[in-house]
Structures are given as C-alpha cells and as structure tokens.
Amino acid sequence: MKVAVVGAGWAGIAAATALIDAGHTVSVLEMAPQPGGRARSVAGPDAARPYDNGQHILIGAYRDSLALMRRLGVDPQAVLQRLPLALPYPGEPGLRLPPGPALISFTRGVLAHGGWPLTARLALLAAATGWLARGFRCDDRLTVATLCAGLPGVVKRDLIEPLCVAALNTPAPQASARVFLRVLKDALFSGPGSADLLLPRQPLSELLAAPAAAWLGPRLRLGERVQRIEPGWRVDGEAFDAVVLACTSVEAARLTASIAPDWSATAGAFAFQPIITVYLHSPGSALPAPMLALREGPQAPAQFVFDHGQLGGTPGRFAFVVSGAAPWVERGGCAEAVLAQAVQALTWATPPVIDKVLTEKRATFACTPGLARPSARVAPGLWAAGDYVDGPYPATLEGAVRSGLAAAQGVDGGVKGANGAASGSPTNAP
Ligand SMILES: Cc1cc2nc3c(=O)[nH]c(=O)nc-3n(C[C@H](O)[C@H](O)[C@H](O)COP(=O)(O)OP(=O)(O)OC[C@H]3O[C@@H](n4cnc5c(N)ncnc54)[C@H](O)[C@@H]3O)c2cc1C
Fold first, then answer.
1. Is there an atom of ligand 1 within 6 Å of 367 CB?
2. Model confidence pLDDT, tens digit, residues 384-413
3. Residue whose CA is at the smallest distance from ligand 1 atom 20
4. Ligand 1 center from residue 27 Cα (angstroms)
5. Which residue, of 189, 209, 234, 290, has the greatest Cβ tally within 10 A?
6. Are the beta carbons of 109 and 97 closer than 8 angstroms?
C-alpha cells in the first residue's frame, strides 16, 4: 500500500517506521522544517548547544518508545541517564525508591522517608494498598485531588501534586484520577526498572527525530503542510491507499471536518494546558542532583529543575519546568518569578540570569475526568495517531508512540483483511 503519514512527531515516526517494516510505501508529510513535533530541539545562538523545546522526562515503563529508539539505531543507554525514582528537594532527600521488586521498593522507600511523620508514611501506604486492591481503577469522574483528599498535606504537597502535574500536566484539582492511577500502575508495576527516571543526555532531537530523519531519507518530506484530504484517498491531490493523521488534534479536526464530522468534533474539543520552560544560566554552578523537585507557590512557578551540566549537556544551564502553566501565561512575569524562586531556593556559584524562555501554549491536552478522546480509526483507510487519541495515558511520548503503532496496525490489518489474510473482515475496523 501507498500510505501517507501526516506529521513527523513521535506518533508519526512510530507509525511510519512500523508501516515501512510491514512492507508499505510511506511518505511522511511534515509542515515544519524539522521532524520531532513538540519533542524536538530548538536552535540557540550556539549551534552546538540547542535547547530542548521543553525539558522531557521518560520513565522505564516507556517500553515502546525505547524499542522504537533501538529500531532507529539509537542506544537508549547512551542518550538517556537512568536514575532510580527519587524526588529530592533542595536540602531534603525526599522520596527515593530503592532497587527491588515494586511493592517492596515502594514500601521501603515510603517508610524510609525522613521528612514525613510516621502517620503520613503509613497513610500513604494504606492508600496505595487500597489502589492496588482495586486494580488501580476508580470512578471516571474523580479528580486526583478528590482521590487523595484523605492523605496528609505533606504527602499531597511533596508527592501527589508534583507527580500529577509532571505526568498529566494538569493540576490535581482538575486532573483525572483514573489516568493518574493508570500512570502509577504502569510506573510501579510493569516490571523491574519501570519507575526509573530516564533523563535525556543529548539534545532532544537526537533521541528520535534526527535518527528518524536519517532512516526515513527522502520518504520524509519537510515543509509540506497538508491542506486537504479527500476520501479515496487524496492528500492535497496526491493519491494514497491509506492515510495516518499524525498531526496535532487541532489540525486533525480541521482535515476531517467534512469527512468524519463527529470524529472531528471530538478531536476539536480539547482544552489545552501550557508548559513554560525557563532556562537559567549560571557558570560554575551545579545542583546537588541532576533533577530536583521544587515547592510551587503563588510566587514560585517551577515544580522541577534540571542541571544540564550533570546530564552531559551545557554546564551552567538549568531548565526550570512550569507545568500546568495556564495561570502564569495569563498573568505574565513567569521567567522573573522563576529567577526569584531559583535564587531563594538554591545555592549558586554565580548569580543566575535568564537565558531562554520557551512557552508551549498547547503543550498537552488538559487531562480532566471523563474526557472524550477520539478513536484511532477515523474512517476506512483513515487513521489517527497522536498523544490525544483514545488510550490509557495522558499526553506523553509513550502515548504518542503507542498510538502511532496502533494506527499502523490498523492500516496493516485493513490490507490483511482485504486480502483475506487476517480475520477476513472487508474493512479495516479494529
Ligand atoms: C514543553 C513540553 C514538555 C513535555 N514534557 C514531556 C515529558 O517530560 N514526558 C513525556 O512523555 N511527554 C512530554 N511532553 C509531551 C510530548 O512532547 C508529546 O506528548 C508528544 O511529543 C506528542 O507527539 P505527537 O506525535 O502526538 O504530536 P506532535 O509532537 O505535536 O507532532 C505533530 C506533528 O504534526 C505536524 N503537523 C501538524 N499539522 C500538520 C499538517 N497539516 N501537515 C503536516 N504536518 C503537520 C507538526 O508540525 C508536528 O511535527 C511534553 C510536551 C511539551 C510541549
């Protein structure tokens, strides 16, 4: 089959790779001058030291992303720093999970937390036992704040709220408890090392986008914004047997408005949450760890800081992450507030200065309770891939990759079905 993949983010790269491996002829049409979508590098004044379009963290449970990297010739061990899950705060060791089987590791880590009273540690273990007993499932209408309402304040402040905003990019009072529990389950219980943090040691584009561009060669067509798709299928007039829409939800909604109005309406209905990344520069400075959690407050926007010097990157470069940043986009002054927070919370060898500020207004969809997400299948021969497509995860790299693989399987299943090789179904319905 001749297949068009629209968009070369991680979802489009995953779909294209799987389709090519299945023997199809693929063209990837990407409107930007580079692949990678939201997970890419951004040029700075020094070409050798690009910025990431927002600091990204992977975890050990991102198995499909890691497998895709390997497929494209990237050694995850070389480009990612693996650290056991730890949430140290400045001057406080915080929660650390020791190595070992998930349950034992979590229990030992919580019990050993020196900063929480014993009652708080036991309350968290009791709550986690309840979540485990219920298979990490809950009512779809619950928010994370409601799910965790009974937990002690220090546990919510130091663990639940930062984890929730980091994983779902949505503050706990608005975030879906069902998705949060699913992330916890996969992080804690999908095999050894699944909770480990994997921090990029290379510019973000080197993790997947640049190797994918080299692997795809002329099959990747940059600078081509798809304007129109017609049933049959024609993409801006060019004929294809199938199409994978791996663009953003907004663009997918536009392109499908007349083809599949209901699907388009669902894809077009998302609310978004911004992420602001503030890079500070302070020559000679280093954090006590490559990544620290920070206490967010009315005047303190950032929840995490990363020391790029300790991650094989530019020494003296520090990435402060402000997730769920809608209030700061509205009120302005985020970078100055981050600078003040940094000076107040951390020790510096030289006074930090604001180096670069990256604001992604539509960083991810707001992951709220009961959210309707569109299906992967749009119409026969037309599939969608992207972090917003229906699935168990919030908007993440792993969600994007898995949806790309699912869309490729859908296209491939359609061929096999049409050939009588699979279920014999004449359509490519999943
Ligand atoms: C600042 C920030 C921090 C993040 N941190 C993390 C993190 O720590 N961990 C994590 O797992 N996830 C994180 N994410 C989320 C992660 O980046 C996304 O979930 C993932 O990159 C989405 O990939 P995608 O392929 O679905 O979409 P995208 O990356 O948005 O790719 C869509 C592509 O389609 C192209 N396109 C759009 N319209 C058209 C058109 N009409 N024609 C052709 N091409 C088109 C776009 O240019 C783009 O390249 C973060 C996101 C941001 C913004």
1. no
2. 999 999 999 999 999 999 999 999 999 988
3. 397
4. 19
5. 209
6. yes
